[in-house]
Design goal:
- The chain is mainly α.
- It has helices spanning 32-51, 66-88, 91-100, 105-125, 127-141, 147-168.
- The chain is flat, with a radius of gyration of 24 Å.
Length: 181
């Protein structure tokens, strides 16, 4: 070992204590407020849709309204929890989160594109194809880069859902392009 020292720059330390922290905007460190609000709006739309649904007979717990009420309640609970969590966060924690947050707009765009395309084209193209493509788009947007696996898993899941809805619940999902086969 030698007594010579190498030229190393000091590691950056915390900001100077004498510098006042800049004020946070309302949204900094509260990104989940948007998701919570979207979930609450979705819960309200599902509840209104269920209230206006024409059901023949009583429908029962597992009838056409049962799953809608379950999803609406789940979305409302998660939405409220996200909003409360975001609003209760301390300024120090918000400042820390704001410094760490980086929105991946490519991922957001790909997920939104998959959902919008699914909603717009399901009647024309059909459930099986659009559900497969939507799953692949969302999985790819969330970071899975194996497109063949995403398409395969999406196809298997869409097929199972198609079988359950058609065979067990006697509800037909849109067949679209595959309707004539």
């Amino acid at each position: 070992m030698s007594d010579t020292t190498t030229d190393q720059s000091p590691a950056p330390g915390p900001p100077c204590e004498s510098e006042p922290a800049r004020p946070l905007s309302f949204w900094e460190g509260r990104g989940e407020l948007v998701i919570g609000a979207v979930l609450l709006l979705m819960a309200a739309a599902l509840a209104l849709g269920n209230l206006g649904m024409d059901v023949i007979g009583d429908g029962g717990l597992l009838g056409p309204q049962g799953f809608g009420w379950f999803v609406a309640a789940l979305a409302a609970v998660i939405g409220v929890l996200l909003v409360v969590s975001a609003l209760r966060r301390t300024p120090e924690r918000r400042r820390s989160l704001a410094a760490q947050e980086r929105t991946n707009w490519r991922a957001v765009g790909l997920v939104m594109l998959g959902i919008i395309a699914f909603s717009a084209l399901i009647d024309t193209v059909g459930w099986l194809i659009m559900a497969t493509l939507m799953f692949a788009a969302v999985a790819t947007g969330l970071g899975n880069r194996n497109l063949l696996r995403n398409l395969t898993v999406g196809f298997v899941m869409a097929s199972v859902i198609q079988i359950v809805f058609s065979g067990m619940l006697d509800l037909n999902l849109p067949s679209g392009l595959l309707g004539g086969w």
